[in-house]
Amino acid sequence: MKGPLFYSKILLFGEYGIIKDSKGLSIPYNFFKGALKLDENPSDEAVSSNGHLRKFVRYLQNMDESLVRFNLLRMQKDVNAGMYFDSSIPQGYGVGSSGALVAAIYDKYALEKITVLENLTREKLLKLKNIFSEMESFFHGKSSGLDPLNSYLSIPILINSKDNIEATGIPSQSNTGQGAVFLLDSGIVGETAPMVNIFMKNMKQEGFRKMLKNQFVKHTDACVDDFLKGDIKSLFKNTKQLSKVVLNHFKPMIPKQFHELWKKGIETNEYYLKLCGSGGGGYILGFTQDIEKAKHSLKDYKLEVVYNF
Q1: Model pTM greater than 0.85?
Q2: Which of 61, 91, 146, 290 has the most CB atoms lying inside 10 A of its own CB?
Q3: Domains plus CATH for the chain?
């Protein structure tokens, strides 16, 4: 048995902001993928993954049936037979490892499922997002449901606000362009739950809430608009501001050894860094107008280009 493939994702803009109704833009990233599998002779990783799946199945058995119903007998039978999630998506890297698993389980076992082939109205997208949010909460304590949605549909998703999401197109890439979005490997595994907890604690302070609304959300929204319009000049202006805001107010989410590197990018304008997912490790997202310059500047780090301007 080998299930269909589900891909990783990158939230280009909107991390943390979407919890407070900022815009967001999420794109599929086909470099990493995962699928449900059954093997005759499972590896140690497969046995470990199967153990996690068993716990997840117990969680799904208690989910609200008015939201979603699963073929639980079939799911239980497959898990008992040793089914596992075979994935190349790094965990704790902000590229949606649990999202791909959630999408794969929904695709295989949900009854009356909403499929990619039908007309995806706003209502259907929201329903899917709500189902995925409940399912993925098993892994993170609180989930927006966007990672699984992106993985399931494999199309860019524009988040206008919590209750207003739509499938979108993004400007086509330029193969000759110097500008790029890239992933920088921090070499550290990040954990989502502790980072979200820090954010929620900060949200209790009025000053932090004000900064979020007047600076973070403002620049995030502008970045989304600029990117979709293809206004590169304005995009880099706003990304620089966003990078500054994150350095000043989201320091705990940036691994310590990257604080100076982050600052250097802002000062030299060679690249701008931002969080990829919840931070704390994993990948860091970078934007540059000159990829060769950025590569030279970051030559000690593993860098992966994901989009060219």
Answers
A1: yes
A2: 146
A3: 6-167 (3.30.230), 180-308 (3.30.70.890)
